[in-house]
Amino acid sequence: MLEKLFENGLWKSRFIVILAVIFGFLGAVILFLVASVDIIGVAKFVITNVINGTHPEHFHEDIVAGIIGAVDLYLIAVVMLIFSFGIYELFISKIDAACNEENENCSTILAIHSLDQLKDKIAKVIIMVLIVNYFQRVLHTKYETPLELLYFALAITALAVGLYFLGKVGKK
After folding, report:
1. Per the UniProt record, which residue ranges are transmembrane (predicted)?
2. Phi, psi of 115, rounded to the nearest 5 degrees
3. What does the DSSP 8-state code read for residue 108?
4. How far apart are CA 50 and CA 97, in angstroms?
5. Which of 6, 59, 80, 157 has the greatest CB tally within 10 Å of its CB?
6. Nearest to 45 by CA among 70, 77, 74
């Protein structure tokens, strides 16, 4: 009797993860909004300069950096969504809305069946965030010697090779 009561209480305690789900989702929404506002800011900057006929120094770099920064935020928001959906499905319940009502085929986009799967999906998106962040920083780097350009080319090659092998992970 006491054991059954304890086990029921322990099992129901898993619902505490609903806090992580709610606040992870809220964080994702906030990041989506902030990234969208950043894109609007870039658009205003471009429109203002086109209307005024001005072309500030580093105009293209600033535009690309602003957009890449927003993409970075969008990717982090996706990490938060994957985390929220994954934790919900692992601890609470399957998300019924992800299934097609006609033939019961469930979406596998965010289907997560273990903590390892959740970690793998989050890790892949985080790696993409780091790559996007790298390219955002590279835009404002000044290359003064051929050796610096060679290092840049090697870094891009290393990223490409890493992405290739990352795509191979988990595929049979």
Report:
1. 15-43, 63-88, 122-137, 149-167
2. -65, -30
3. -
4. 45
5. 80
6. 70
